[in-house]
UniProtKB/TrEMBL annotation:
Keyword Protein biosynthesis carried by entry: yes
Reported function: Seems to be required for maximal rate of protein biosynthesis. Enhances ribosome dissociation into subunits and stabilizes the binding of the initiator Met-tRNA(I) to 40 S ribosomal subunits.
SUPFAM superfamilies reported in the protein's UniProt record: Nucleic acid-binding proteins
Domain S1-like, chain residue ranges per copy: 22-96
Protein family according to the UniProt entry: Belongs to the eIF-1A family.
SMART domains named in the record: eIF1a
UniProt cross-references to Gene3D superfamilies, sorted A to Z: Nucleic acid-binding proteins (2.40.50.140)
Signal peptide limits: none
Keywords, sorted A to Z: Initiation factor, Protein biosynthesis
Protein name: Translation initiation factor 1A
Length: 112
């Protein structure tokens, strides 16, 4: 029998180092994920992102994100640089306003 999920908020919540509940996805260093800010919309599912490691990359919006998530200039995103060409990357996540404020408060968005 089908049983509906009563969790309407969606997503997982994990416990941080201080014991508080964290509901924001942070970049994974093992998967080479980097935080960045969208600086320019180029069209054809491409954006220019200023990354926290000091480089500006041309990034491609993944197919599963094209219609579901709208990305605008000034948004905070997680990107994964290509292995064979460092100046290009894929956008894998976009943060909402409250999530970006949380990242800034916790010190993830340090200025370069």
């Amino acid at each position: 029998m089908y049983k509906p999920n009563n969790n309407r908020k969606g997503g997982k919540s994990t416990t941080g180092q201080d014991g508080e509940i964290v509901r924001v996805r942070t970049p994974n260093k093992k998967e080479r994920e980097v935080l960045g800010t969208v600086t320019n919309m180029l069209g054809a599912s491409r954006v220019t992102v200023r990354c926290l490691d000091g480089t500006t990359r041309m990034c491609r919006i993944q197919g599963k994100m094209k219609k579901r998530t709208w990305i605008r200039e000034g948004d905070i995103v997680i990107i994964v640089p290509w292995e064979f060409q460092d100046e290009k990357a894929d956008v894998v996540w976009r943060y909402t306003g409250p999530q970006a404020n949380w990242l800034e408060k916790k010190g993830y968005l340090k200025t370069v």
